[in-house]
Design goal:
The complex is a heterodimer of chains A (273) and B (263).
Chain A: H1 2-6, H2 12-37, H3 41-60, H4 65-86, H5 91-113, H6 119-124, H7 132-161, H8 163-168, H9 173-190, H10 192-214, H11 218-243, H12 247-268
Chain B: H1 2-12, E1 13-24, E2 27-38, E3 42-46, H2 53-60, E4 68-73, E5 85-88, H3 102-107, H4 121-134, H5 150-164, E6 168-171, H6 180-192, E7 199-203, H7 210-213, E8 216-221, E9 223-228, H8 230-233, H9 236-243, H10 255-262
Parallel strand pairs in B: 3-7, 3-8, 5-6, 6-7
Antiparallel strand pairs in B: 1-2, 1-4, 8-9
The chains are: A mainly alpha (273), B alpha/beta (263).
Amino acid sequence: MIEILTEPFQYEFMIRSIVTATASGVMLSLLGPFAINRNMGFMADAMAHATLPIIAIGVFFGFSISELGVPASILIAIFLGYIIKNSNIGEDTSIGIIFSSFFALGFVLISILDVTINLEDLLFGQILAVSSFDVGIVVSMCVGVVSLVIIFFKQLLFYSFDPVGAEVKGLNINFLNYLFLIILSVSIVASLQTVGIILVLSMLLIPAAASKLVTNTFVTSIFVSIFFGITSSVTGLYLSYFLNLPSGPTMSLVATGIFILCFFVSKLKKVKI
Amino acid sequence: MNNIEKNSFNDTAIIVSDGCCVQIGNAQALDDVTFSIEKGKKVAVVGPNGGGKSTLFNAIAGLVPIVDGSLKIKGMNPQDAKGSISYVPQKDFLNKNFPLSVKQVVEMGLIQKDSLNLFSRKKINKKIKEALKNVGLIEKINENINNLSGGEFQRVLIARGLAQDADILLLDEAFSAVDVGAQEDIMNLISDINLDGKTILIATHDINNLEEKFDEVLCLNRHCCAYGDPSEVLTEEVIEEMYGSHNEMFKFHTPESHSKNND
């Protein structure tokens, strides 16, 4: 049994993959409970899709996705935040317009600039191809995101629960708004190689939703969500290794499996942790 | 003599509105509103829907700009007085998806702009407990807010304001979406609570027996129709000015009719 568990570790690429998958799992499932309680799933999806044109231009100029990560995510977060705040056509509509037009722009740019991007890898993730440099970048992003959430946890929670009360209390809600958008965007962009543009949403929302079903308090739901996130990433990676399955979709399906299990547990057992 | 009286009045006035005008979109939500609220008063803000109660609270809280006239909180512009006000907004503005405990919500009153996640737990816990004792909910300190009744939840938000040590408590629509029992419950709390010199403003639709629970009433219908002792200012004329042709509904609630009923 132990041999089976340690077998993948004889390959360096698997060690790199497991570290990256864990870092992505931690970041996304830490922010997931905030995102689901603030109904920000659509926004997160738009953030992921809006990366496509930036990646196309970046790759054209010779940068890798990892190198583009932080500046791209900050750019997307500020742009989305600004448009939503200043347009008066409704948040959902603004996000929808940005979502689809950026995605379309990305495809057109890939075609015009004739850049070599494996679209399937970008859409569904290709964790087995991560380099040591990529691992370093993703882990640094993870440390940054976790630290910022710990430092500003109470302010972020106050702002998320009662934005008006927080503003009257004197908190800088503009700062808190953009801070959350930026760390969410960083986590999403950092996880693109793990699960890809389309499936990144599953790793953000599903562990958090499963956790909400079986927990009673917000803080507990964050810890359980992180546990589910890491479990989905690592188990998904193992399964993809042994069963020769695509890694991103396998991780998503493991997360879905955990969600279904939690759903039935919550139906059968009324007591939550 | 007049000057002396005027000065001493200003010393105790905590909210002074002088011809305050607020515009929301193209509509004049508050038009030339003038009143002066003294420190430590319990004030009911009444008026019809769209009469500007929430707008006035937003203006006091510094959330909307004042286009004409002035509004001073402790002698400062509302923007500069943030932190000395605790605002309990209408329920729709609170995100109750978050499974928070009573303690976490009350603790929000103690979060500062520059305070990170690293401050003395002992001091915080003491303040939270004091505030919850004051609103009679100490036994529910670890309860999930989604398990509370509407009235209890309002009490938790009042406790948050008490923990904050704010000088002014603004309760917007504290009585919406709570049943009659809970309304009575909150009213009794406001009457009994040790406000410790705090000024409290509550928006309410119920103009019954205001004189028993509040020191002052502010009658608002875009402009200030009347301000003062509820038993004196809630006259038939003022009620008609506020509610127009619907004043028939309230004609038995005037101070005169109350005294007649009591006779």
